[in-house]
Amino acid sequence: MLLVGVTVASAGHASTASPRYLTIPAVFLHAVTVVLWIGALVPLGAVLIRGGAALPIVLRRFSRFIPAIVIVLALSGTALAVIQVQTIPALWNIDYGRVLLAKLALVAALLLLAALNRFYLTIAILAGSASATLRLTRSVGAEIGLATAVIAVLGLWRFTPPPRAIAANPALFEVQEVSSAKEGVGAILSIRPPIVGPVRVEVGDLLLDGKPFEPVGVSIDLDKPSYGIGPFTREASPASDGTYSADGFVLPLDGFWIVRVTILVTDFRSVTLTDVFDVQKAQQ
Questions:
Q1: For residues 55 and 126, what is the distance between their CA atoms, to the nearest angstrom?
Q2: Which helix (H) or strand (E) holds 150?
Q3: Residue 123 CA to its chain's centroid (Å)
Q4: Which DSSP helix (H) or strand (E) runs through 192?
Q5: C-alpha to C-alpha distance for 272 and 284, rounded to whole angstroms
Q6: Half-sphere exposure for 95 (CA within 13 Å, toward CB)
Q7: CB count in 10 Å sphere of residue 152
Q8: Residues 63-120: pLDDT tens digits?
Q9: What is the model's pTM?
Q10: Domain coordinates of the chain in residue numbers?
């Protein structure tokens, strides 16, 4: 359990945020308390199903230590949210904030269910109610389901940089787009981030004679002929949303870079779209 806390606290956006003397302990405590709470639900459910003389003892112990865990969980989570989100509008203006709101909605439902279990069903079971045992078993199962949903939602943060990181270096998260067309074929070409270093080039909104189509293949070239650099060539991979992207480009210089996207319309016809990206220097 402590190893989980150390592992989580040593990686990710939150653990690298300033002030680290606050964020690292907060991430550690948040991870450990999550494991304690969620990890305790499974054996609790097993005891509820089995029943027996041990059930009242387990319920009393669970009811005693869970409130302290929830308090630490809430305080550490609040501290991390304030550091990462920074402003209230970011909760609905930025993907990271929207994921946080979804998480908070699920956590609120989880806390309401936990309060019902703690202050109503547990007391009823300790008073000898057999029907309350069945209801608590179902309720604990629902808690486990909600906890699983929370973890699934948190997985989206992998694709959503926090507002703090965006504010610290906005160029890293910018996207530069150009619209290009030739011989009835059109597309939106984009580069991210448009700064010196590793970049990704994407080709989206592919149209053939004004209608969406699926090409046989797409390849991308980047070069800077004025300096004799390139071309760097990559085959683009399709995504489920219809875009084509290529990683692995590393641009050593800022300035104008020529992008050439060769679209294989059919096995016998290809069209090359040519445009320019304006690449900026990396922020120091």
A1: 9
A2: helix 130-154
A3: 39
A4: strand 185-192
A5: 36
A6: 12
A7: 11
A8: 888 888 889 999 998 988 888 888 888 888 888 889 999 999 999 999 999 888 888 8
A9: 0.65
A10: 2-167, 174-279
